């Protein structure tokens, strides 16, 4: 790609922001048992650390475009890095679980703006014919973050302490702040439409209530009545938003988006299939450390086959969809993802290492195919007027599903742990095994959603590349 040096630096700046965001979404998982021990908590009750980050990101993503237009992309991107670094420092200084969760919310709010605003800057800086190539470059660090995150997290926990999985963001963030001020173009603030604050509050309250209800089943000690009330309020708030958006001229997400069949099916499929599969990066390192005696570094290294197989699978995605179509690929692959997840119900300390590595690699491959195919089918039929809004909605659903998936897995794990009391090692292993089977079945159930796709839908190489560039999976 031929371009000015400042454009090259700008691409690297956006790529590093994406890397920071995806790294922090995965680096925490292998450190959870060490965090739990340091904070005096049970390692089986630490899912709120992961949920808080994903939920905070899901909350702010809908407002990212408006904020960039209202205050300027450079100012918002700079503020996002500062907020992310402040959240990271607060995470490292946390003295108890409540403080850590609050700090993860701050970190997630900063992370929520890094990719959408960075992508918007690239769109406005590069000619249309270079945009896809530029976003493909930006996406590479986003794939590397999940690759090294678990292993780096495990190594830092053993070499120094868990606090450093957050403190490493500080020097990167400082360099990012300087580069943003120097190389990111300062766009004049233009006139923007009034922000749909009422709709945003309804949507955010609905997402938070449903997520807290799920998390409350596992770790917050909420009574069943409180959980029920939260769920009812959450659902009512989402319904109220839908009714509000239907009669507003400029809603956050227009109901017209859902007139596009592939977007409607793709979003629902994303939500329900990720409810199952997104819990795996949380459950697998926990299983290995709590029941199989793995060190944090060993548990992190066991996640390498997942990431490597996922990256290797990208090249086969477009040919598969071109040949078999979205419906056949997504229905068959969703069933495969669920069954592979359920196969972790056979996990045992006596299992041969090669078999465990093969199992993890197969999961990484089918999960990667799932994410790319879901993202592509969701966005492929949107016209230019709806592309930005549809992409933001997809990003929000992805992060919401990730948080709710981990919360749901934590609730199921807590239920099975109580069922198999006393919770010795053997009983805890049984709780994990049962949880994997349940979460796998949730993923299997979502295959029925993808069956609603037209059998004629096929892939284009450009659509698949765009989905990879936007993939949060």
UniProtKB/TrEMBL annotation:
It holds the Pfam family MFS_1. Its main location: membrane. One of its GO terms (cellular component) is plasma membrane. It is found in: Cell membrane. It is a multi-pass membrane protein. The chain crosses the membrane at residues 49-69, 76-95, 101-122, 134-156, 162-183, 195-214, 226-244, 324-347, 353-372, 393-419, 431-451. InterPro entries: EmrB-like (IPR004638), MFS (IPR011701), MFS_dom (IPR020846), MFS_trans_sf (IPR036259). Signal peptide: none annotated. The keyword Ribonucleoprotein does not apply. Keywords: Cell membrane, Membrane, Transmembrane, Transmembrane helix, Transport. The keyword Ion transport does not apply. Gene3D superfamilies: MFS general substrate transporter like domains, Multidrug resistance protein D. Residues 10-458 form the Major facilitator superfamily (MFS) profile domain. One of its GO terms (molecular function) is transmembrane transporter activity. It comes from the Bacteria. This is EmrB/QacA subfamily drug resistance transporter. It comes from Acidovorax soli.
